[in-house]
Amino acid sequence: MDGRTYAYGAVGAASGLQNPIEVAAALAKQSLRGSLSFGRIPPIFLAGDGAQAWASAHGLRTARQQIKPGEDTWLVTDRTYRQWQKYKEMLEGMEAHAPNSAINAGAQSMNNLPDLLASNEDAVMDTVGAICVDSYGNIAVGSSSGGIAMKVRGRVGVAATYGCGCWASSDKTQVGSSVGCCVTGAGEHLMKGLVAYECCCSISSLQVDPESACRDILLKAHQQGKMTIPEACGGVLLVHVNGISNQNLCEQLESLEVVAAYATKSFGIGYLTDTLKKPKVTILRQNLKEDIQEIGLFSSLFRFDKVESRKR
User: Fold this and answer.
1) pLDDT by residue (tens digit) across 121-151?
2) Where does the record place the site Cleavage (predicted)?
3) In Å, how far are 204, 231, 240 from 179, measured between CA atoms?
4) Catalytic one of 73, 80, 127, 161
C-alpha cells in the first residue's frame, strides 16, 4: 500500500506465484492508471487461479503446470514438501478416523497444534512486513505470509486483507505526520479488529501516541479473539514520521519512530536509515501467561543522527 496515493494491491489463496508481493505491487500500480476496457474498475485483490492467470498475463513468473516434487523447484523445496506431505497425511488420517465428527476433530487438532509444531522447521509461520519512508516523508507498506499450517483450503489471511495486514498514510493535510503499519498473527481476530487501519487512524487523528495506540488496539483485538480462538496472538510494527512539509518538497524530517507491540513469545524486527552504517536487528521475547493482560513494547526514536531505544 502506498500512503501518498492510497494505492493498494493484494493476492490471496494463490499458488504458482514466484513472488506474490510483486503481483500485489503490480495490481496497486495498475489501479492508478484508470478504468479498464468497457469502463471496468481495475481489481485490487485477486485470489486463486485468477491471481496466477493475471500474473502470467502481465509478465510475472508463475508455474507452468501443477507443482510436483522435483519440478518448479523455485517454488517447492524438499523441506516445504515434507511439511506439506506430513500435514496432508495427518488431516487425511483424522478425517478417516472420525468422518462424521468434523467439528470435534477440528477442535482436537487445534488443541494438539503446539505438539505438532514442536520442531523448529514447523514452528516458523509468521508474516513478513516491511515499511519504507523516503526523504520527503512518503511512506509505503508491504506484507506477505505463507499462512498457518493446516489452514482451510481457500483461506485468505490477514496479510492480504484490506485495512488489516497493512496500512499507510502520507496525507499532507495531516499536521506534519505520516504513518505506516503492518500486522502479523493468528489472522481472524486481527481481521475483525482492522488492526493496521485502526492503529494508523488513532495516530493520524492525534488521539494517542504511537506506543499507546499499538498496545491498546492490539490488546483489544487479542482479548476479543480469546473468546473464540484460545490460541489468539499477534504483533504490530509501526513507523511514525514527523516534520513533513505541506509543500511538494520536504525541507527536513524532524523525527521517525519505530514501534513494535506484540502478544507473542517472540517478535523479530530490523531497521535501517541513512544515518546508520548497518541495519539494527533484534528478536524481542517475553514469557506469555495464559490470561495475558500486558503487551510487549519496543520503540526507537530517530532525531536525525540520534537514536533512542526503549523496550518494556
Assistant:
1) 445 556 789 999 988 888 999 999 876 666 7
2) 126-127
3) 7, 29, 5
4) 127
